Amino acid sequence: MPTNSQRHSELEVWMWQKKIRNAKYALEAKRFGSTVKDPNDWDTQKLEVMEEIVSEKAEQVKAFRERIEKCENNSIFAEATHDAFWGTGLDPEATEHTDPNNWPGSNKLGQIVKKVAQKYKRRLRSVSVPRRGQHTPEDPQTLDKFLCEMKKNKKTNKKDGK
């Protein structure tokens, strides 16, 4: 049976979760979250947790997923906040006009978004490659058949004088 302090703690967590979920803006949610004491092992888990959150966002938010799928491999994702760990440590304008090597922040969130984007791009490429049994009638089904077709075309072209 839970003690009074455990019930109080669970209720407090539930109330903070509700405030954070109902926040109108991300910054408002961050401010609420900043007042909550981090769990003891948070520093060892926060990058993994954030990657899971960003991955879930990519799964659930079509516009976000489509945007990261279209990015080039050399794209730089930046969280332009004054947060020195998750962000660039600069405001959006300064982030845009400053070499990433000179950002005072670590930009961990931007790095995580890039990592998730690369996973989605790999997944997108692997889905687009035809699998065995998925060939269209005009596609060669084997390498041998393809090479035979090429040889036939080459012979036909020689006969026709092309």
Automatic annotation (TrEMBL):
Pfam family, one: NADAR
Domain of life: Eukaryota
UniProt-listed SUPFAM superfamilies: YbiA-like
Polar residues composition bias: residue spans: 100-109
Database matches in CDD domains: NADAR
Residue numbers spanned by region Disordered: 88-109, 123-162
Alphabetical list of InterPro entries matching this protein: NADAR, YbiA-like_sf
Compositionally skewed regions (Basic residues) per UniProt: 152-162
Protein's name according to its UniProt entry: Uncharacterized protein
Organism whose genome encodes this protein: Magallana gigas (Pacific oyster)
